[in-house]
Design brief:
single chain, alpha/beta, 3-stranded mixed β-sheet, two-stranded parallel ribbon, 9 helices, 11 strands, 16% strand, RibonucZ/Hydroxyglut_hydro, Ribonuclease J, metal-binding, hydrolase, metal ion binding
Length: 299
C-alpha cells in the first residue's frame, strides 16, 4: 500500500474486522527485497492529486518507489470531469519513461468507487432511515436518489440547496432559513470572497498588466518636468516599446492642456480622462487594457 490515506483506510478496515482473510501488506520500503514481477502496489492519487503517491511516483520524487521501463500502471478508476489536465500530465510522465499506462481509454478495466443500486438497497434495508438528504452529485443525480429513496420506503426524502438550513425535528424536516454561501480565499492572512474587488483587480493585472503615471504640478498650475511613466506586464513589439513612454508623455501633456490645473475641482475629471486616454494608447499598441493609476502631485 502506497500513500498515507490508503494505509489509514486499511488500518481502519482491519479494526472493523474487515480484510481479516487477506495477508498483511508489506511495507513499501521492504518491496526492494522482493522480485518486481511478484509485486503489486496499490497507490493513492487516482484523480491526479498532486501530493498523492501516484503523482510523486510519476514525476520521480517518491522516496521509496521508482518505476522502470515496461512496468505497468493500471487506472481502474474513471477520469472525473475537471481532473483531465492533472491526470494527463501523470499519463505523460509515465509514457515519457516508457512505462505502460492501462486505463478505461484502452482497456476494459473500470471499477466504480461508488456503490451500485443493489448495494444501496442493502444499505437502506440495514439502516432503515426516516430522513434522506442526498448531497453528492449533480442535480439530476440527487433527484434520482430522492426517487430511489421513496421506492425504498424512506419517509422523508428531502432535497436541499446550498445554504439552506434544514430542521430535522420535531415533526417533518423543513427548510427554515438560508445563509450566504460560496467560496472564500485565504489571501495572506485575510479571508476574501470570490467576488472581492481585490481579486478582480488582481485578475485584471494578471491579464492586462499595470500602468502608473505621475504628474508633477507646480504652484502656478504648470506641469513640472516630464510625467513619470511605469509599465508592468504589458507586452509590446520592439519598435513600440522604445517609443511608448514618449507617446504616453505626449498624451498626458495634451490632455492636461484641456484642463485648468489650478482648479482642484477638475482633478477627478482630469484623472479619469488621463486614465481613459492612456489606456486607449496602450490598447492600440498591445491589445491590452491595463489597470491604470494616475498620481497628481502638487508641489
Amino acid at each position: 500500500l502506497v500513500g498515507r490515506s490508503m494505509n489509514r483506510i486499511y488500518q481502519l478496515a482491519r479494526q472493523c474486522n474487515y480484510l481479516q482473510d487477506i495477508k498483511v501488506p508489506i511495507d513499501v520500503r521492504d518491496a526492494k527485497k522482493i522480485p518486481k514481477n511478484k509485486m503489486v502496489f496499490l497507490c493513492t492519487g487516482s484523480q491526479g492529486e498532486q501530493r498523492a503517491a501516484l503523482a510523486r511516483i510519476a514525476n520521480g520524487t517518491h522516496p521509496d518507489l521508482h518505476l522502470e521501463k515496461d512496468d505497468n500502471v493500471i487506472f481502474s478508476s474513471r477520469i472525473i470531469p475537471g481532473n483531465e489536465k492533472r491526470l494527463f500530465k501523470i499519463f505523460n510522465d509515465f509514457s515519457k519513461n516508457d512505462i505502460n499506462v492501462l486505463s478505461e481509454e484502452n482497456s476494459m478495466i473500470h471499477v466504480s468507487g461508488h456503490p451500485a443500486r443493489e448495494d444501496l438497497k442493502k444499505m437502506y434495508s440495514w439502516v432503515k432511515p426516516k430522513i434522506l438528504i442526498p448531497v453528492h452529485g449533480e442535480q439530476r443525480h440527487m433527484a434520482e436518489h430522492i426517487s430511489f429513496a421513496k421506492e425504498m420506503g424512506v419517509k422523508f426524502p428531502v432535497k436541499v440547496s446550498n445554504g439552506e438550513i434544514l430542521r430535522l425535528a420535531p415533526g417533518e424536516p423543513e427548510v427554515v432559513d438560508k445563509v450566504t454561501w460560496g467560496r472564500v480565499y485565504l489571501d495572506g492572512k485575510v479571508l476574501i470572497d470570490n467576488d472581492s474587488p481585490v481579486l478582480k483587480e488582481r485578475r485584471n493585472m494578471a491579464a492586462n498588466g499595470y500602468m502608473e503615471i505621475t504628474v508633477l504640478i507646480s504652484k502656478n498650475g504648470q506641469i513640472k518636468n516630464n510625467p513619470i511613466v511605469t509599465l508592468k506586464g504589458i507586452p509590446l513589439i520592439e519598435e513600440d516599446a522604445s517609443e511608448i513612454e514618449y507617446d504616453l508623455e505626449d498624451v498626458v501633456m495634451d490632455t492636461c492642456k484641456t484642463f485648468n490645473l489650478n482648479n482642484s475641482k477638475q482633478e477627478k475629471n482630469l484623472i479619469d480622462t488621463l486614465k481613459g486616454n492612456c489606456r486607449k494608447l496602450i490598447n492600440d499598441k498591445s491589445g491590452k487594457k491595463p489597470l491604470v493609476n494616475i498620481n497628481l502631485v502638487r508641489l
